[in-house]
Each structure stands twice: as structure tokens, then as C-alpha cells.
Automatic annotation (TrEMBL):
This is Probable E3 ubiquitin-protein ligase HECTD2. The active site is at C697 (glycyl thioester intermediate). Keywords: Phosphoprotein, Transferase, Ubl conjugation pathway. Pathway: Protein modification; protein ubiquitination. One of its GO terms (biological process) is protein polyubiquitination. InterPro entries: E3A/B/C-like (IPR044611), HECT_dom (IPR000569), Hect_E3_ubiquitin_ligase (IPR035983). Pfam families: HECT. The lineage of its organism: Eukaryota, Metazoa, Chordata, Craniata, Vertebrata. The keyword Phosphoprotein applies. E3 ubiquitin-protein ligase which accepts ubiquitin from an E2 ubiquitin-conjugating enzyme in the form of a thioester and then directly transfers the ubiquitin to targeted substrates. It comes from Chlamydotis macqueenii (Macqueen's bustard). Residues 390-729 form the HECT domain. Gene3D superfamilies: Hect, E3 ligase catalytic domain, Hect, E3 ligase catalytic domains.
Length: 729
């Protein structure tokens, strides 16, 4: 009776059943070595905890005659538990030396028997409510010690913990969850036993109940989770990812119930994972990298079906991984974007063909492509004219022709066009972008002009690069990609501001570190800001040799910066530099990018992922390239090939980039790494007096069989250092 009083009973129909279950639990407690966890297949599904179920339970009480109604018991108070971390550790040490685990067994079986007992054991102070997001009230050190010792205890101890968790999850709930309930969920999630597939049925039901909590309850769990140590936070995330992977592709399918009976497993786990992702995003720097949430197993499912399902049903009750894009790897997102681009290309090309036929005109293959014809001597102006004139064709497959050259574009000329155009546009003399030496990145020039079409061209170039899977050597700060996704879908109302995002001092540090450092010093200054700095809410910028002033707020030139308003001043100054002063330039840039890349797939991307798609990775791993290289006419053990890799691995970074550019048309590494280049070395049956030749369309290097390493190095350096222009063999 004492043990039964700790639980709340919401219906008379379950009263007797619950008492019997408790009696059985007490009987088993007296003989812990005989505890047996039911077979996974036979564990019955726990009823879903949802509003409908709770409502039916309340109705069943309300409809009873008055004389049969039982008084609703008050919230039970927590039992008093005095065991400390040291007491527990002493018990474990004694058990290890004596072999008598009774004290440890009793502690575990009592502690995990109910949510009340969990709080009694691990709550810092049982008399304090701990009802704020700032402090969960959990004694994290005690929890960690108890869980660290658990996996080294005898099996009957571990089984008693699992049985207690089942009892807690089977408890019928009445009304909203209390903070003690949320604490229990937070503690149970950290149980290392859930890494074992034999516990997955119990784990799934725990995840289901957490996923079904209200938004307010999730808010508490998110803030409490961000206080977990980095190592244990990573373990929790990895455990959830493993659960999803093994449910998708089980090593032993017979271990789990049939998929049709547990379709809620994966959605529940993904929703709980989303809480940890939210917690990770609240802290700067984040607890773990955003890439730690990637589940590479999803690379092997039908991603386009997931994408189309998400497009059709949005964020409705039909589950799709695209609702939770943080779990999809950048490689998988690239596949989605590429296939979505291909489908758009095919659709646009088909429409052009239909239009041509309907006008009874002879179809021409060129109409299926975006054909750009440029002169090297007028590269920017010709490119601007071509893209402006063929705006309706931007979503067709890109083909580039250099006037006066015989090269056919199978991909190599396109790469060359991008490379040369970007190089010219970003040259300091061109004036469109300012290069900041301290941060090694470009940022839009704030100079005002009448025509921002060239900024639109740069945006279109970036869009074309993503659309045609080309990597560019552009050095924009992360803030740029955040602005490109603000919003990720172009608004229908043209009066809506675009390219405006929340910016912080951290964003300014990535572009103008010296200025950002000065503003940071202002914020931490301990003296009198108004008297010592004598600044107002007015800033100055030089434009074409003329100093111009701008007010950060109305009458800003008359408002002094003080200790009280300096945070506002810094925020307005950062917003002015990164948003307002370059709004027209970046708006043109934004519309140029989205004129090509308009796709719901952009909703899946983080700003950092857009940067990787546009620029690839600058980190060259030539050893990885060596491992993935294919050979034609050579064996990897041939002397010439051994000479080649000895030379290349000894090159400076600059020469390695030149080699990559010579052979592939770009010196950047694609999303999938060096292996995605499909680099091939072919034997050239020509004189060894010839230089190496590259087919950039196919990432192929043709290498004559040079007689020694010195000759190979000399010819290779000459070849890769003088590579611009195309011809036909």
C-alpha cells in the first residue's frame, strides 16, 4: 500500500490491475536474481500519450455517479533519499571486493522504479521546485557516476533498472507533466543501456513520450540539455542516430518488431534529436559541430521520394526527414539539389521544344541549353550581356564558347569561364568588392551607383555554379550565405526586404576583425563612455574620396553614446555595416542567385552548407586523391606513376592547387571530397618531349612515360603553370 500510494490512478478500471502489478513488483524485488526482462518481441506497445487519451480518461471519471467518485489525490511529495555520490561509490567498491551486490541492487531498483524515485535520488534539493529553464535541478555528477557504474554491474541489477523504467513509462498520466516528470525524462535519456539493441523497444517508448510533450515542456528540455557536458551530449546524439540507422537497416531484423507495427519509432527519435539540435544552436560556440547531427545512413534511402513527399505535404502529420534537415548530410542534400536542378532543366528544355514545334519551327539542339558565347578580352561585359539577354534560359544546362577557340564544352570550358570571370570581378581595381586583408575575404563595396546589374551577375554566377555543380574560388564571409537565405524562398511581394538577417558582433569579426575588436572594447570599457569617447549615433564612411555621414537612428548626431546605450549603438552600427549600407547591392546579388537557384531544396540548407556547395572545400588532401585515382594504360605500381606521386606529394600548396586546376578546371575540392573528382591518369603514347595534357571535362590527366623523376617534375610544373585556353586534338 505504501508503494502504491506513490502513483496516481486516473481510472477505477485500472485500479485493481495496477495494485496487482505493484504486488508482483514487490515480490520480484525480494528476489532480484530472478528478475527477467520480457523478450523484446513480447513487450506490448505502450499506449500513446496524447490529448485524446488524457481527455477520455478524465471523461471516464466525470461520467461516474457522484457516490462512486474518488477524491483526486494531491501531488505526491518526493520520498527522502540521503545517499550521496561518495556513499554510492563506497557501495560499489564494497560490492566489487566482496561479490555482494545487494546494496547496489537495492539502490538501482528503488531509484528507477518510478519518476518520483528518480527525482528523489537525483534532484539537488527535494524541497525546491527548480521550475526555471536556467537550472534543471539535476545533480549531474551523481547521474553520471550512477550511469558510469551501471554497465559494470551484474545482469540482474541492469535488468531491475530496465524493469523500473517500464513501470515508470506505464504509469497513466493525468493532466500536464510536472517539472519533476521532465527531470525524469532528461535523466532517463542519458541511460547508456539504450545503446544496446535489446533495449530498443523500451527506448522507443521513452522517445515517444518525450516527442509527445507540449511545446512548453520541450522548451524546458532544450534549455536543460544545453547544460550537459560535451562528451555526454555527443553520446546522446550518437545513440539517437544509431537508433534511427538500425531501425532503417537492422543487422538482425528479427530483433525488432515488424516495421508496420512501429512506424512511429523513427519519427519519435528524430523529434527528440531535434530538441538536442535546438539546444546545440542556442550556444555560441555550439556544443558539438552541426555535422555531428548528420546521419550518413540516409544517403542510402530514396531521398527524392522524401523530398517530393515533403513538397506535397509540407510539415503536416506525414513524416519526412526533410522536415528535419539537420539530420541530412551535405552530400545527400547535394544529391537532392542536383536532381531537382536536373528535373527543372529537363522541364524547361521540354517546354522550349514544345513551343518551337507549336510554332511549326524546326527544332534546334542549341535551344535545349543556356549557350554563353564570350570573348576573353571582354569577358565581364559579354557575360553580363549574354545572361541578361537569355534570362529565360538560366535554368537550362550551361554551355560556354570562347570566341576564336575550337574547344567543345563538355564541362571544362564552363569551369574555365567561371574561374576567369570570378577572378576579374573580384579584382580590387574593379571596385565591386572590397578585399579585407585581416580576414582574407571579400565584402560588397558600399559605394552608391545607378546600376547594380553587375551584382546581379555575381549572384547569378553563384546560382549557376550550384545549379551546374561547379565549385568557385570565392571568399565570402559566412554572413553572406546567411543573408542569401534570408528568406530562402523569394517573396511574392516585391516590397518585402530581402538579404536582411540578424547580425551580431561575431559576424563583423569575420569580416572586419579590427573594427569589431574596437567595438568589443567599447562594450567592456569600465570608464565613462560619454566623456571619454565623445561619440554619437552617427558614423562616417569614405566614398570616392568624400567623407559622408550617416545617422544610425533619427537625430543620431545629437544622441551621445553612453554606458547605458552603448549596446544599442554597437548593434545598430553592425546592422548598418552588414545590412543597411549595402542593401541595394546585396538585394541585386540575392535576386541574381535566386533567379537560377529558386528551389524549395534551399530550405534544407544551413548557410555553412551553401558555402560548401558554392565553394567546395579549400583543404587539399593529395593522399586521398592518390588513393581514389583510376589509371588507364598505367598500373599504380609503374615507375612513372610512383615518380608522379612522389613529385605531387612534395609540391607546395600553390603547385598542388595549380595541378588540380590544370586537370579538373577548378582548384577546389567538391562536397564529397577528393574521391568525388573521379580523377584519372592515362598513358599518353607520345614523345617524352611533350608536356602533360589534361581533359578537364573528364578530370583526366594524360601523362607521357617520362624516363626519370627530374624530367617528370620539370615538364609537369611547366604544364600546370601555363594552362589557360583550350584546343582540339
Amino acid at each position: 500500500l505504501e508503494r502504491g500510494a506513490k502513483n496516481q490512478f486516473s481510472t477505477f478500471s485500472n485500479f485493481i490491475t495496477t495494485i496487482n502489478q505493484k504486488k508482483e513488483g514487490i515480490g520480484n524485488r525480494n528476489s532480484p536474481t530472478q528478475l527477467v526482462i520480457p523478450n523484446i518481441k513480447n513487450v506490448r506497445d505502450l499506449p500513446p500519450i496524447c490529448l485524446d487519451v488524457r481527455q477520455k480518461q478524465r471523461i471516464s471519471i466525470d461520467t461516474l455517479p457522484q457516490e462512486l467518485k474518488a477524491p483526486i489525490p494531491p501531488d505526491p511529495s518526493l520520498p527522502i533519499r540521503t545517499k550521496t555520490v561518495k556513499d554510492f561509490q563506497d557501495d560499489v567498491e564494497k560490492a566489487k571486493s566482496s561479490g555482494d551486490w545487494k546494496a547496489v541492487h537495492d539502490f538501482y531498483s528503488t531509484t528507477f522504479d518510478s519518476f518520483l524515485e528518480i527525482n528523489a535520488a537525483f534532484k539537488k534539493d527535494t524541497n525546491s521546485p527548480f521550475s526555471t529553464i536556467e537550472d534543471s535541478g539535476i545533480d549531474a555528477k551523481f547521474v553520471n557516476v550512477v550511469y558510469d557504474a551501471l554497465l559494470n554491474t551484474p545482469q540482474d541489477v541492469q535488468k531491475s533498472v530496465l524493469k523500473g523504467i517500464i513501470n515508470g513509462l506505464l504509469q497513466e498520466w493525468k493532466g500536464p507533466r510536472t517539472k519533476d516528470d521532465l527531470r525524469a525524462y532528461c535523466i532517463l535519456l542519458q541511460n547508456p543501456q539504450f545503446s544496446n539493441t535489446s533495449t530498443y523497444v523500451i527506448y522507443a517508448h521513452l522517445l515517444r513520450q518525450i516527442a509527445a510533450l507540449t511545446e512548453a515542456d520541450h522548451h524546458f528540455l532544450v534549455h536543460w540539455s544545453k547544460k550537459i557536458s560535451q562528451r555526454r551530449f555527443k553520446q546522446l546524439v550518437d545513440r539517437l542516430l544509431q537508433f534511427i540507422s538500425l531501425r532503417l537497416f537492422p543487422a538482425k531484423p528479427e530483433e525488432f518488431p515488424p516495421m508496420v507495427k512501429c512506424t512511429w519509432w523513427i519519427p519519435s527519435a528524430t523529434k527528440v534529436l531535434a530538441l538536442f539540435n535546438a539546444a546545440n544552436s542556442l550556444i555560441s560556440p555550439s556544443i558539438i559541430s552541426y555535422t555531428d547531427f548528420y546521419n550518413s545512413t540516409l544517403d542510402h534511402i530514396d531521398l527524392m521520394e522524401e523530398y517530393h513527399s515533403w513538397q506535397c505535404y509540407g510539415n503536416s502529420h506525414r513524416f519526412s526527414f526533410c522536415q528535419y534537415p539537420f539530420i541530412i548530410s551535405i552530400a545527400a542534400k547535394k544529391v537532392i539539389i542536383q536532381r531537382d536542378s536536373e528535373q527543372q532543366m529537363i522541364s524547361i528544355a521540354r517546354q522550349s521544344l514544345v513551343d518551337k514545334v507549336s510554332r511549326r519551327q524546326k527544332p534546334d539542339m542549341n535551344m535545349l541549353f543556356l549557350n554563353v558565347k564570350v570573348r576573353r578580352t571582354h569577358l565581364v561585359s559579354d557575360s553580363l550581356d549574354e545572361l541578361a539577354r537569355k534570362r529565360a534560359d538560366l535554368k537550362k544546362k550551361l554551355k560556354v564558347t570562347f570566341v576564336g577557340e575550337a574547344g567543345l564544352d563538355m564541362g571544362g570550358l564552363t569551369k574555365e569561364w567561371f574561374l576567369l570571370l570570378i577572378r576579374q570581378i573580384f579584382h580590387p581595381d574593379y571596385g565591386m568588392f572590397t578585399y579585407h586583408k585581416d580576414s582574407h575575404c571579400h565584402w560588397c563595396s558600399s559605394f552608391k551607383c545607378d546600376n547594380y546589374s553587375e551584382f546581379r551577375l555575381v549572384g547569378a554566377l553563384m546560382g549557376l555554379a550550384v545549379y551546374n555543380s561547379i565549385t568557385l574560388d570565392i571568399r565570402f564571409p559566412p554572413c553572406c550565405y546567411k543573408k542569401l537565405l534570408s528568406p530562402p524562398i523569394v517573396p511574392c511581394d516585391h516590397n518585402t526586404l530581402v538579404g536582411i538577417c540578424d547580425v551580431t558582433l561575431d559576424d563583423l569579426f569575420q569580416i572586419m576583425p579590427e573594427l569589431a575588436h574596437g567595438l568589443s572594447e567599447l562594450l567592456s570599457y569600465e570608464g565613462n563612455v560619454e566623456e571619454d569617447f565623445y561619440s554619437t549615433f552617427q558614423v562616417f564612411q569614405e566614398e570616392f574620396g568624400v567623407i559622408k555621414s550617416y545617422n544610425l537612428k533619427p537625430n543620431g548626431d545629437k544622441i551621445p553614446v553612453t554606458n547605458q546605450n552603448r549596446k544599442e549603438y554597437v548593434q545598430l552600427y553592425v546592422d548598418f555595416l552588414l545590412n543597411k549600407s549595402i542593401y541595394k547591392q546585396f538585394a541585386a546579388f540575392y535576386y541574381g542567385f535566386h533567379s537560377v537557384c529558386a528551389s524549395y531544396a534551399l530550405l534544407l540548407l544551413r548557410p555553412e552548407e551553401v558555402e560548401i556547395l558554392v565553394c567546395g572545400s579549400p583543404e587539399l588532401d593529395m593522399s586521398a586523391l592518390q588513393r581514389s585515382t583510376q589509371y588507364e594504360g598505367y598500373q599504380k605500381t609503374d615507375l612513372t606513376i610512383r615518380y608522379f606521386w612522389d613529385v605531387v606529394l612534395g609540391f607546395s600548396l600553390d603547385l598542388q592547387k595549380k595541378l588540380l586546376h590544370f586537370a579538373t578546371g577548378s582548384d577546389r575540392v567538391p562536397v564529397g571530397g577528393m574521391a568525388d573528382l573521379n580523377f584519372k591518369i592515362s598513358k599518353s603514347e607520345t614523345s617524352t618531349n611533350w608536356l602533360p595534357v589534361a581533359h578537364t571535362c573528364f578530370n583526366q590527366l594524360c601523362l607521357p612515360p617520362y624516363k626519370n623523376k627530374k624530367e617528370l617534375k620539370q615538364k609537369l610544373i611547366i604544364g600546370i603553370s601555363n594552362a589557360e585556353g583550350f584546343g582540339l586534338e
